[in-house]
Amino acid sequence: MPSRQQVLDFISSSSEPAGKREIARAFGLQGQEKIKLKALLKDMADEGLIDGKRTAFHRMGGVPRVTVLRVVEIEDGEAIAIPDSWHPDDGAPPPRLRLIEKGRGSALRKEDRVLARTEEAGKGWIAHPMKKLPARIDQVMGVVEVDKAGKGWLAPIDKRVRNATPISDLGGAEPGQLVLAEPAGRSPRSGVKVTEVLGDPLAPRAFSLIAIHKYGIPYAFPEEALAEAQKAAKLPLSEADREDLRSLPIVAIDPADARDHDDAIWAEPDGEGGYRALVAIADVSFYVRHGGKLDREARKRGNSVYFPDRVVPMLPEVLSADVCSLREGEDRAAMACHLTIDAHGRVTSWRFTRALVRIAEVIAYEEAHRRIDAGEGAPHLVHLWEAWRLLEKARFARDPLELELPERRVMLDEQGRIAEISLRERLDAHRVVEDFMIAANVAAAKALEAKVAPVVYRVHEPPSREKLVALKDYLATFDRKLALGQVITPSLFNRMLKDVSDDAEKALIMEAVLRSQTQAYYGPRNAGHFGLSLGSYAHFTSPIRRYSDLLVHRALVDAYHLEQPRPKDHAIPATSGLSEADRADLSRVSDAISMTERRAMEAERDTIDRYVAAWLAGRVGEVFDTRVTGVQKFGLFATIIGLGGDGLVPVSTLGAERFEFDEKAQALEGEMSGERYTRGQILKLRLAEANPLTGALKFEPVDVAEGVQRIERRGRRPAGPRNDAKGKHMVGKRGRPGNIRHSGKKR
User: Fold this and answer.
1) Which fold has domain 620-746?
2) Which of 293, 394, 406, 485 could crosslink 345 through cysteines, CB 3.0-4.6 Å?
3) What is the pLDDT of residues 456-476, one digit of tens each?
């Protein structure tokens, strides 16, 4: 019998179509050998070595027509996959296939597995997904535990995973260590084997490391990208080719712990009741050119990711924290947005230049606010505040959506341990910078539209009808109306919230309004920004940490002929504008950076949850004022007021009676007492558990026998029998679903 390789060599070298008959004749096969050949050819077809035709086989290069693929990368919004099982005799690397998905953008993520139909296209391969398959976890992270019998277990660090996994090979790991592991065999019963020991899971910097691994965030730059960044950092700045703005007292107002400074502002009166203003932004496009290794890495990351203990930057540190950062007293390359603001706060004109700036001062938000309040502000700082008051007028006129969204701030000591967790205070200094940045972002979008140039818009679409219907039904539980026939605007929501005087009810409605909003994204099609009440909006002001802004800078370079010459002997790409592919179609990269933004948000939120849980681990048993943030049939979700940290209150702890879940009103109500729990209510709860590894918290009533102690009791009904409303779920005291009742009849 011929080997697989001999069959492949014959098919490749045959001048005639090579079918089973021709192969059998070539190798002199008879009788039972032909039956074995048929089985061999079927196996080879299944393995993708040849196609499945009976009349004439063709070599396929190892990719079956229908096979399981694993996504290894999302490149410009397009999933790239390799065969999930790849064991070639010659050790050849697996082929990379582009997954052609239906619809807009990629719905697949890294490590997803799909059954796909493959085909050769030009010099490469493409695949059409047929079915998404359950995840096969090749590598998992957890904490080693050893039971009394000496058996090792991998405790999960994801709060959605409840069970530990048996460890077949500890690989030198000790109990309590954070490790990476992979399946020890094909069967789940085989457990996992430890492949890498990461150390103490509660050590400083461990929480962000967990998030980095969990979400697959690239955190190490390839040597080629680092080398290119070093070369780019040495690009000379030409005074002759840039507008010299070094004499202006431009200031950067940033958080006290800011790791980079990519924006700075300046303003002065124009003598006609308005102001001339400048927003100077780091000229990243001068250093990061399309087509290079550095650009490819930035594109893959999409944005920087900020953790309390570290930042995973979009660009190497030599650029992000040094050459591109607008440092005080140092000459820096900037993209300058010149604005003219009239007496009503309207931006009447703008222009963009490449400039040379020297920041007069870098000021923390708190210090800038203190100086203005104390009357100690220098003239250039006072002018900024006066110009902002005009922009504030315009903001009030357009009435953007006003929702109170507190931000948690984790402060660490020098050893990386938690020193304090608090909510960031919202100051006028924050609003000053924010309104100048919004003005520049609008100007960038409109400047590109004026040239009919490509734009990466920041899009926030109005709420969908489905979400508005859900909001309407929810508001009806408060006897409040939302007419869906009218034009839905941010002003409508703002007026609704202003009409609510009760703080608890206001918190509920604000939460509902927030949930009704769509998620913002990047795209080349302008659909406006609903939340900001703006018709055209693009991100221009943070190119150090957002690839979207870098693309807007490149588009401005092209549209307004702002190209900067570079030395001919300098080994970086020549042009700093858009690539031909991006100029032709920005949708692919827009989808990709929208996805990386969501990934970063989830990783940052997970890490903060772990820090909060670690902070609270020593305070288990204490009673906290909490606000209900969610209601499900199995219990309540509550967050500690002034601190954050969401935890579960199981329905089994609310009392001995059964509780009815009202899905439409998002409420739990006692069957006998009428005690009612809804989102937004303020409760006193005792912290029962705090798990730093998963970030999970668990609360219980102050007095389990009596149920939750409430600061405010609302909506209480008298005890006694009553008819059950249609479609409401009865939940028993143990948290088990009870009978679902419809119109008073059991089913």
Assistant:
1) OB fold (Dihydrolipoamide Acetyltransferase, E2P) (2.40.50)
2) 394
3) 999 999 998 888 998 998 888
